[in-house]
Amino acid sequence: NAGVMQNPRHLVRRRGQEARLRCSPMKGHSHVYWYRQLPEEGLKFMVYLQKENIIDESGMPKERFSAEFPKEGPSILRIQQVVRGDSAAYFCASSPGRVADTQYFGPGTRLTVL
Amino acid sequence: LAKTTQPISMDSYEGQEVNITCSHNNIATNDYITWYQQFPSQGPRFIIQGYKTKVTNEVASLFIPADRKSSTLSLPRVSLSDTAVYYCLVGDIGGGADGLTFGKGTHLIIQP
Asked: Is the pLDDT assigned to residue B110 strictly greater than 90?
């Protein structure tokens, strides 16, 4: 049973470009979470999705950031018009059910904005 | 207002037992307590989860007093490979994302 997969593992973008981060949850998991981690900081919750629905996006910046989890395919975190401050590690996690269930994390995508 | 409070860092030696305590004074009735471990450049990994009293698995024990305002992660006979950041989370089983703040965790350093 493959774990949570994220790609790309490393992504370099220039200011103003778009970044698309993909996350494939573990088989059988219908809940996906996205987190951002700055260097030397803890993980900051961004958004919680179930299939085709955003359940909680209280941690998402109001502009430029969006997330989706379509019926088919991976979850996508999209950052438009990236700025240097978006440089961070972005982790995706999945769980079989509710929030308090164990979350299984992917290896992360490290975004660098030049 | 932070939901959990942990020491920023701890040091210990190989073979010792390490206890990391997390304070969660405002824990709610529906909240579970979960601990994660994170190595550099990797995603966090689940260690243990509990609601009250004591939970033990193959890698750790979790002690939760009756008032549930704190919890202690106990790592028996640590090794160098246990050097990592340990996060304590308090999560609402009702489905809200309030408990999904990892904070800065406790940086545990194990020395030979």
From this structure: yes
